[in-house]
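Whiteboard transcription, Tuesday session. T.W. wrote the structure tokens on the left side:
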């Protein structure tokens, strides 16, 4: 099928943000003469959602599933503590650096093609990592996983955007997708704990092969390939510039989590990243085929949604990372028990995301949902600061987790929905990539910032004290509480920032604008 983009400013396909919908060339006009084409994915949309959900779960949980298996992998392959971080960093570096490039590639070669290539690559890289005979092969496999994930993530979200065009059904689809994005880290910890404890650390990688086979079969059978005459050309200079900048940004903040901010390997990479972003932004105003048209980013609602995803990515690492440390190190939880401890949060997060996008988004709009969700998440993090060295899970941890889960659900699904809705069909891939980029960069910054603040708090607590086991335990506890307070502050700032950026009310003009269909 060949698509062409209309230029009629009165078309209902044009949203308030300036996005234009497309109609198949030669299609029989409706009475209005400008309604979008029939969606060929409509009849199988729920099966497609299942395939996209499997791919998204694989991407998100792989950021944490291997973390729990690291001690066993280290013993098996014999690498040192200094090398251990690279098993995680290699994945995040490749993923973060290549997201925008592969997002635009999805617009160029088709979302179905990009999705399938990404699935195959992810499965092969996972098999290589699971069979790794040494540290070097394992790190290489993790980097390849990250690169394949960078293909999968924007293709999956843009396929979701173009498959679900009816507002209510779109809300349900984004509730599922946003719930997976928000809870994938917790699911990864539970699955990683189960596989490591009852099988072998290698199965934290091999399990992706099973996911890949199921998702690949579904993608081949269910998805249609479609073409557009107006496909954008690749912005080579912009691609190289932003990929390099994102690599330096993720590396700099990842390095800051284990090195001083004054270390050249930290600040020099961050400085290069900042320069790269400035050059990239300048170039996008002059390029004839920009990699990331600034209209995508500068729309007020999309900008607020991108900010929400970024801030949530930074803030929620306080609960995932430091609560995991607290449960395992201070309370002596096993990996499986730690994963189970997060399950109540996962359940309420999914329920909250579903309610937000299927009922509330079309009633009150994104602004109050995101602001209230941020405020609830911050309140839950502040409540979490009441922990002690002998805290009981039911009395001091379960309640905060439930509040945080409700809050993140109210933020993630509506923000992803608004960030990608009404985008010009030829920009769907790069807009989806930008959502994932914001979450990835936010997570990297949050991890580095909170880790630095927690370490400084522990050092300050120990100053002038005799390092007895009890004092050391309280210093560690103080570091966790500090991280929770800062996470609460991040969410509180997010409530204000997103509340100011997002427009009030429901944008009914977008409900009539079904994104054009490209595979």
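and on the right, the sequence the group agreed on:
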């Amino acid at each position: 099928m060949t698509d062409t983009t209309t230029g009629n400013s009165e078309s209902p396909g044009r949203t308030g943000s300036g996005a234009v919908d497309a109609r198949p060339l030669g299609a029989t006009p409706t009475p209005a003469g400008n309604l979008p084409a029939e969606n060929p994915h409509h009849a199988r949309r729920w099966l497609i959602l299942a395939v996209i959900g499997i791919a998204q779960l694989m991407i998100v949980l792989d950021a944490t599933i291997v973390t729990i298996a690291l001690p066993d992998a280290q013993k098996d392959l014999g690498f040192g503590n200094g090398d251990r971080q690279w098993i995680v960093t290699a994945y995040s570096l490749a993923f973060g650096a290549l997201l925008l490039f592969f997002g635009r590639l999805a617009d160029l070669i088709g979302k179905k093609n990009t999705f399938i290539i990404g699935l195959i690559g992810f499965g092969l890289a996972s098999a290589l990592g699971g069979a790794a005979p040494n540290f070097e092969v394992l790190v290489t496999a993790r980097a390849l996983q990250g690169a394949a994930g960078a293909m999968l993530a924007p293709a999956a979200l843009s396929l979701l955007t173009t498959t679900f065009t009816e507002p209510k059904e779109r809300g349900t689809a984004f509730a599922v997708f946003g719930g997976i994005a928000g809870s994938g880290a917790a699911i990864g910890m539970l699955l990683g704990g189960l596989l490591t404890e009852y099988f072998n650390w290698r199965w934290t990688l091999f399990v992706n092969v099973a996911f890949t086979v199921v998702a690949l079969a579904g993608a081949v059978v269910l998805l249609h390939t479609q073409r557009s005459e107006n496909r954008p050309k690749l912005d080579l200079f912009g691609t190289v510039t932003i990929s390099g900048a994102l690599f330096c940004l993720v590396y700099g903040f990842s390095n800051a989590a284990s090195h001083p901010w004054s270390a050249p390997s930290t600040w020099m990479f961050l400085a290069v990243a900042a320069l790269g972003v400035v050059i990239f932004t300048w170039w996008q105003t002059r390029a004839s085929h920009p990699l990331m048209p600034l209209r995508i980013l500068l729309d007020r609602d999309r900008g607020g949604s991108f900010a929400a995803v970024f801030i949530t990515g930074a803030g929620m690492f306080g609960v995932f990372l430091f609560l995991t440390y607290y449960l395992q190190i201070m309370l002596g939880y096993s990996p499986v028990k730690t994963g189970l401890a997060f399950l109540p949060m996962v359940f309420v997060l999914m329920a909250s995301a579903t309610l937000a996008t299927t009922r509330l988004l079309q009633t009150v709009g994104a602004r109050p949902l995101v602001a209230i969700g941020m405020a609830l998440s911050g309140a839950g993090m502040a409540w979490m600061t009441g922990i002690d060295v002998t805290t009981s899970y039911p009395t001091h941890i379960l309640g905060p987790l439930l509040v945080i889960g409700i809050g993140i659900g109210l933020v993630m699904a509506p923000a992803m929905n608004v960030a990608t809705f009404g985008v010009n069909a030829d920009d769907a891939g790069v807009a989806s990539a930008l959502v994932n980029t914001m979450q990835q960069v936010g997570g990297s910054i949050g991890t580095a910032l909170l880790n630095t603040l927690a370490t400084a708090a522990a050092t300050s607590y120990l100053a002038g004290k005799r390092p007895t086991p009890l004092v050391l335990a309280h210093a560690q506890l103080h570091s966790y509480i500090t991280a929770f307070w800062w996470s609460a502050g991040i969410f509180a700032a997010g409530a204000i920032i997103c509340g100011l950026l997002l427009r009030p009310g429901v944008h009914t003009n977008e409900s009539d604008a079904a994104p054009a269909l490209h595979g």
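Someone added at the bottom: Residues 344 and 402 are 7 Å apart (CA to CA).
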